Amino acid sequence: MLTLSKKILVAIDGSPQSDKAAEEAVRLASISGSKFKSRLYAVLVLPSMKTPSFTDFFPDKPATELPGWEEKRDRLFYVVEKVAAEAGVDLESLVIYGDPAEELMMMASEKNCDVIVVGSSGKGRVKRTLLGSVSSKISSHAHCSVYIVR
Predict the structure, then answer these.
(1) The domain containing residue 16 runs over which residues?
(2) Which of 49, 89, 100, 115 sees the fewest Cβ atoms within 10 Å?
(3) Contact present, 40 and 89 (Cβ < 8 Å)
(4) Please, are residues 147 and 117 in contact by the beta-carbon 8 Å criterion?
């Protein structure tokens, strides 16, 4: 059966590419109209915490526990929250730790998302070849559709 309501996951990192992806994800979510409400998940993936060693008597606190986190979080999610509110789209903002590509795909699977929206990396060909990019990893391995916004 065709369902017009969708579950959409958008990757957020504060870059101009992720802001464009957020705007596009909200547009996709709002296409279904008010009768078929789509759900949008905005996900920020922070680098994993290093595992403590014998010399780490005072391990670093996670970024979400550092002073000033709330202001930083508000800046990172500003565009997606503003655009979603204006469009009347249901939004859930999440902050998780780990490898961005792996965590985004895992979250999309957990939430049973229909599409993952990511911004293009903006890296050059050599850098992308050496380091890889989150968008290319997701597009190659995700269980659902992937929409890469340039």
Answers:
(1) 7-48+60-149
(2) 49
(3) yes
(4) yes
At residue 39, φ and ψ (nearest 5 deg) are: -115, 135
Structure tokens belonging to residue 12: 């957020």
Residue 140 lies in a domain: yes
Q: Are 46 and 101 in contact (CB under 8 A)?
A: no
Give the CATH number, domain containing residue 117: 3.40.50.620
Residues 6 or more apart from 39 whose CB is under 8 A from it? 5, 6, 7, 8, 29, 90, 92
pTM score, whole prediction: 0.84
Measured CA angle at 119 (ends 113, 122), to 5 deg:
150
The more confidently predicted of residues 50 and 72 is 72
